[in-house]
Amino acid sequence: MGGDNAPYAIVKGAEAAWREEIAEPVLVGDEQSIRSLLDAASKIEVVHAPTYVEMREAPSSALRKKRDSSVNKAYELQRAGDVEAVVTAGNSGAAMAFAIFTLGRIQGVERPAIMSFHPNAKGRLSILLDSGGNVDCKPGHLVQFAIMGHVYAKYGMGIESPRVGLLSNGEEETKGNELTREAHALLRGLNINYMGYIEGTDMYNGSTDVVVSDGFVGNVALKLSEGVAEAITTFLKERIGTSFRRKLGYLLLRDVFAELARTVDYSEYGGAPLVGVSGTSIICHGKSNEKAIKNAIAMAKDFAAKKIPEHLSEAMRQYIDSHG
Amino acid sequence: MGGDNAPYAIVKGAEAAWREEIAEPVLVGDEQSIRSLLDAASKIEVVHAPTYVEMREAPSSALRKKRDSSVNKAYELQRAGDVEAVVTAGNSGAAMAFAIFTLGRIQGVERPAIMSFHPNAKGRLSILLDSGGNVDCKPGHLVQFAIMGHVYAKYGMGIESPRVGLLSNGEEETKGNELTREAHALLRGLNINYMGYIEGTDMYNGSTDVVVSDGFVGNVALKLSEGVAEAITTFLKERIGTSFRRKLGYLLLRDVFAELARTVDYSEYGGAPLVGVSGTSIICHGKSNEKAIKNAIAMAKDFAAKKIPEHLSEAMRQYIDSHG
Predict the structure, then answer these.
(1) A121 Cα to chain B: minimum distance (Å)
(2) A324, part of any domain
(3) A residues 132-171 near B, CB within 8 Å?
């Protein structure tokens, strides 16, 4: 029920996932409005939820008053083992709060985080976390983010020894702020491929697989990247239609522009895994369209099949054993 | 003497500024190496400085040991009234330390800041500050940054009522971290056009003239923006040369790509003013080329002529009078 285009985009995305045999989605929310949108031919299961969380509702208030909301109902189905993963485009703070409340955290994880994927110049994806959940972090939280990023890159993306960097204002040891300096010292003692401080440019040149930051910096970074990409594509679009010569040039380069548009389009990547809770959960952009929802369902299916939460549990257990 | 291409790029940039009658530059540094690069025809004054600050030297150590460095010598000339502004591509931390030490701060400014310019989708420039000087800030520092940004946008760029935003992880009042929440409350009491929290996307869509953040977030934002723009231009370049059709398309759109390259090229904007010290000072990118130096000299001339430090003094005086 959540998101700017809900429930329409959610229902249509789920139908597409069902039609293309990506997964067997279960839709959770107001049964009547969902059924009115569902294709008669589709055999998608609908589970009724009497309320839903508004986009601007404070997560703490939702947690108290909206236990019967669509998002919490979905996590309850997951806890009961009726579904293997949850996908939501609604209020992400509330999704995080309910996931922690209903699924619980993996032992050793104090702060579950939101992980986003960013295309880089090497044609691969870099992971950024936390990209929005936790604004005021302690150094130990960044260490947990690094372990979570390592596990996702290794078991989710198949990178043998993921390169993990700490986002900072410079690569030199003298750089960083109070938070990153303490985290940097802790990260050097970790049994992962920690590369030290990295700069914003490293997020996109392909030199790093996992970028670690607090959720405030991470969210600014995420939206800033969208902003730059949007400004550049707007710039190109506005100029291309202005003469016959330019229109012809565009036609000849149409496939290149289409590939660029796909590369910077968040909806190609589906969504952002909520990591550190006991189960697979994908948080989608509020403005998600049908394609984004379909891709998020595919991502949820993939990560659930790869048993990422189980691998993360194991990694956290090892960390606790060796660091107390 | 500072910067990746020094002293060559600095000398050639100064010569270009002299040749094009932008300003009458004075070069400060090792006289012999500067003279060996200077065109015989150019009548640029050279002031000898026996040492210079290395790029990786800690500012605090430079401040103790390098009083006779080129950068401090330049600020001494400015304090004595022999030059109207200083331009440097060297160690920016040391430049800031010496500017504060030798020129002094404007009354009411606790933390001078570095201001960067970012092209936006409206074809104008947005100001970001602090983009690197101060990593751990208090709310009052962000208020001073806002006043400094307001003054530069108004008197430097001629914007009657500059829109000032606080960079955050969302626009809602419930967003922000500890630092921004306190700063937000203070900024609302300020006599400027304060728009509240803005997101990373607003930095590039033209909805804001001045973006305020601490120097850690600002520096990450600055380098991230460069990173995204670089990744996109690399993406386009790599694909364009791969077939006759695409090469032809590129030729027809060559002016559009050239305009894009100019728009995202930092060297077009010259440099970043160091604001809050008693005098005009422009900090350039370490990798500045001749064109960047020339444009930075033009910027220095312009801001010195517009008496920005004097306007800032006046604005700070008013702020102190009304807020104690």
Answers:
(1) 5
(2) no
(3) 132, 135-136, 167-170
Cβ atoms A110, A144 nearer than 8 A = yes
> How many CB atoms neighbour CB B311 within 10 A?
16
Spell out the per-residue pLDDT of chain A, length 324, in tens.
988 888 999 999 999 999 999 999 999 999 999 999 998 888 899 999 999 999 889 899 999 999 999 999 999 999 999 999 999 999 989 999 999 999 999 999 999 999 999 988 888 899 999 998 799 999 999 999 999 999 999 999 999 999 999 999 988 888 899 999 999 999 999 999 999 999 988 999 999 999 999 999 999 999 999 899 888 888 888 888 889 999 999 999 999 988 888 888 777 777 999 999 999 999 998 889 999 999 999 999 999 999 999 999 999 999 999 886
Task: Indicate which of B181, B205, B217 best probes the interface with A, i.e. most A CBs within 10 Å of its own CB.
Answer: B217
Q: Does A55 contact chain B (CB < 8 Å)?
A: no
Report the residue of A54, A128, A169, A250 to disrupt the B interface, i.e. the one with the largest count of B CBs within 10 Å: A169
pTM reported for the whole predicted model:
0.91
Residue B128 to residues A69, B147, B274, Cα–Cα distance (Å): 41, 12, 12
The reply to whether B114 falls in a domain is: no
**Radius of gyration, alpha carbons of chain A:** 20
Pick B253's closest partner by Cβ from A228, A250, A259.
Answer: A250
Total tally of structural domains belonging to chain A:
2
Give yes or no: residues B9 and B60 share one domain: yes
Range of the domain at B252: 121-271
Are A255 and A127 contained in the same domain? yes
- Do residues A179 and A226 both lie within one domain? yes
State the CB neighbour count (10 A cutoff) for residue A139: 17
- ipTM entry: 0.89
